[in-house]
Write a structure and sequence with these properties.
Layout lengths: L5 E10 L3 E3 L3 E3 L2 E5 L4 E5 L14 E9 L8 E4 L5 E5 L6 H9 L10 H11 L3 E4 L3 E9 L2 H24 L19 E8 L8 E4 L3 H10 L1 H11 L8 E6 L7 E7 L10
Helix pairs in contact: 4-5
Bound molecules: zinc ion (ZN).
The site of zinc ion has 8 residues, from α2.
């Protein structure tokens, strides 16, 4: 049975910016690969409320089971209390090579083109894939709707109010005191990359970037610096770039960029 609990060692490769959640305060869409190289999407991870965090390319060991509420084959529920935090792949000259040993061990989620990933999505429900871009056409900032900002703020206030009420009702003897609500900024604009892949059917793709690091750069240092950094990483003459693509639960045909793979091109490594 697929819903059986299993203990897996997982190398984390992707985290998206936190989203508000009625049940978990917030969740971070987190992705990794198992030791066999199979991609997994882990839910729910209220990342900033965990007793300990983890970084990209760090191993964790955790109890997971197939998520009954999400039929996408890569989606698993994780028991956050079961997480054991392992080593991070050390940042050395060959760090990308060491990461690649596990990341690309299973060819099943590596696609030569986005169109091939779409085919797999239709055939088997594949919802995570890696594709290398052939050309980057444009990187732009899309300002999000004012109504999105308003509903974000409303939801934040509503969650905070209900949490404060719960905390106020507690007696000293109760054990599980819920945490205080942490501030979460609404990201006003998201990066969108227009790019082409190497498929005869390709009519180019426009995809938003949900990677947490990119959002953090933007939140802390502003749009301009984040745009410069993203432009640098998307310079295909310098970086052997691949996009990690993930689809949306409600819109399985829509894929977004949930992470970037950007080792320097081999001919530049020793300069
Ligand atoms: Zn394409």
């Amino acid at each position: 049975m697929q819903s059986l609990k299993q203990r897996e060692r997982i190398l984390i490769w992707g985290k998206t910016y936190p989203e508000l959640s009625t049940k978990y305060l917030e969740t971070v869409c987190t992705a990794g690969v198992t030791e066999a190289g199979r991609p997994v999407r882990l839910f729910p991870i209220p990342f900033r409320y965990l007793s300990q965090g983890f970084e990209k390319y760090q191993w964790i060991t955790a109890t997971i089971c197939k998520n009954p509420a999400d039929s996408r084959p890569e989606s698993f529920r994780i028991d956050c209390d079961s997480i054991e935090y392992g080593d991070k792949i050390p940042t050395t000259a060959d760090e990308w090579g060491r990461r690649a040993d596990f990341m690309f061990r299973d060819v099943g989620w590596q696609f030569p083109t986005v169109e091939k990933l779409f085919d797999a999505q239709k055939a088997t429900g594949t919802s995570i894939g890696v594709v290398a871009p052939l050309t980057i056409k444009k990187i732009e900032l899309l300002t999000r709707d004012k109504s999105d900002a308003k509903s974000f703020e409303d939801k934040f206030q509503e969650l905070k109010k209900s949490l404060d009420a719960k905390r106020a009702q507690l007696t000293l003897f109760e054990q599980a005191i819920p945490p205080e609500m942490k501030k979460l900024d609404f990201i006003k604009a998201r990066f969108q990359i227009s790019w082409e892949c190497n498929d005869p059917r390709c009519k180019s793709h426009k995809m938003q970037v949900l990677d947490w690091e990119v959002c953090e750069l933007q939140r802390k240092h502003g749009d301009k610096l984040a745009l410069e950094k993203l432009n640098e990483l998307c310079d295909l003459s310098r970086y052997d770039l691949k996009f990690f693509l993930g689809n949306l639960f409600l819109y399985p045909h829509s894929f977004m960029i949930v992470g970037l793979w950007y080792p320097k091109r081999a001919n530049l490594l020793f300069r």
